[in-house]
Amino acid sequence: MKNDHFIRNKKTYTILSIISGVLLAVFLTITIAFWFKLDAIRPNSRTVSVRVESVYDAKFGNDVYVIYENKRYELINVTDGEFYKYEISAEQRLPVEVLLGDDGKLYSNINGMKNNTVTGKLYFAFLGCTFVLLFSTPTLIACVVEAKKREKNDPRGRG
Predict the structure, then answer these.
(1) 131 pLDDT exceeds 70?
(2) I want to staple 68 with a disulfide (CB 3.0 to 4.6 A). Which of 50, 54, 85, 131 is the partner?
(3) In the predicted model, is pLDDT for residue 59 greater than 80?
(4) What is the reported pTM?
(5) Which helix (H) or strand (E) holds 136?
(6) What are phi and psi of 96, to 5 degrees?
(7) Are 50 and 96 within 8 A, CB to CB?
(8) How far apart are CA 34 and CA 125, in angstroms?
(9) What is the pLDDT of residues 36-46, one digit of tens each?
(10) Cα–Cα distance measured from residue 24 to residue 132, given in angstroms and rounded to the nearest whole number
């Protein structure tokens, strides 16, 4: 039992589980705050008519390229539900309406504009960290529990 990994590293697992639990609480709180802040954003935009040049059903996301004022743009945040509309528009050469943001980019919907702000990017960064902590914290706690269980069953009476 002397070489038992869990017993040897019990103190480390205990410290890490406490730190991870505290970070989880803090990051979850910050993520929720950013979610409310993101929901309250009302970006400036105007609706413009564009011609769909090409559509690609990519593995990660949907690539839609449009022509607006004789310039080629990649349409941002095309959802699966909207992709079909752009496919039809490209085939039939029909104009579609999209959002032109203050940043000069074209967006498929208002959520794309919100997510592209600093608040949106911070929200997703904290959300990702929260998910990592949501899985790592219970794992670390389970390691501490396993170490205690093994100490208790140690035949040399260490527990």
Answers:
(1) yes
(2) 50
(3) no
(4) 0.81
(5) helix 118-152
(6) -130, 160
(7) yes
(8) 10
(9) 999 999 999 99
(10) 9
